[in-house]
Amino acid sequence: xxxxxxxxxxxxxxxxxxxxxxxNFQGQxxxxxxxxxxxxxxxxxxxxxxxxxxxxxxxKVGAGIGLPYEVRxxxxxxxxxxxxxxxxxxxxxxxxxxxxxGAEAFHSLHHLLxxxxxxxxxHIDDIGERVARLxxxxxxxxxxxxxxxxxxxxxxxxxxxxxxxxNDLEHELxxxxxLRKTIKRAHExxxxxxxxxxxxxxxxxxxxxxxxxxVLEDDTLVRGMTHLLDGNYDMAGDRPMPPDSxxx
Length: 248
What we know:
By secondary structure, the chain is mainly α. The longest helix is centred in the middle third of the chain and has 30 residues, at 69-98. The protein has helices at 13-20, 69-98, 105-133, 142-148, 161-189, 192-215, 226-229. It starts with 12 loop residues before the first helix and ends in a 19-residue tail after the last helix. Helix content is 53%, strand content 0%. It is elongated, with a radius of gyration of 21 Å. It has a domain at 69-217: Ferritin (Up-down Bundle).
C-alpha cells in the first residue's frame, strides 16, 4: 500500500459532523404563537370570508375527543409545528429529487427520494388530521409553515448530492428528536391518540434517516482509480468538515 494511502474511515467526517451537530437547532416549539398575529405571514391579508376559528387555536367544545381544552391546545400546537417542519422537509426532498445526477444518484437516489416524498406527504396528512381531531386549525400557508418550522430550507441553488443528502439527514435527525419530545409529553398528558400517531411516524422517519445515512457512507462502486493515479489517495473523495459547520 502506498505510504500516503489511508483506508477511508466509516462513517465519513461529513457524516460524523451531521450526526453530532444538532446544536444548530434550538429544538423549541412555538407554544406562544396562537391566534391571529399581524406580524405572522398569512395572517394579515384583508378578506371578506367568514372566520369561524382563529389559526393555531382549538375549539372550546365540540372536538369529540374527551381531553381537557388545555391538553388539546398544547398538543395541537406541537403537532402543528411538526406538520410545518415536515412540509419544509417535503419541499427540500422534491428539489433534491428533481436535481439528482451522477452515476449512483440519478437512478437509485431518484427512486429513494420518491419514497421519502411519499412517506413525508402521508405523515403531513396524518398529523394534520390529528390537529383537526383535537379541534385545531393546521397551518397551511407555506410562508407561515416555514416561519413556524423548527427546521429551515437550505439555500437555493444546485449543490453536490452529498451536501443535499447531508442536509436531509440533518433534518431527519431533528424531526426525530422533536417527535420524541412530543411523544413523551403526550404520555404525561394521557393523550394516547397522539402517542399512537407519532410513534408510527417516528419509526418510519428513523427508517428514512437510515436510508440517508447508508447512502452517505464511504463505500462506493463508482470511485474508479483516480485516487491512485492523481497521487492524492483521497479514496472516498471526502473533504474536511469542521464538526461545528452546517450547510443548512
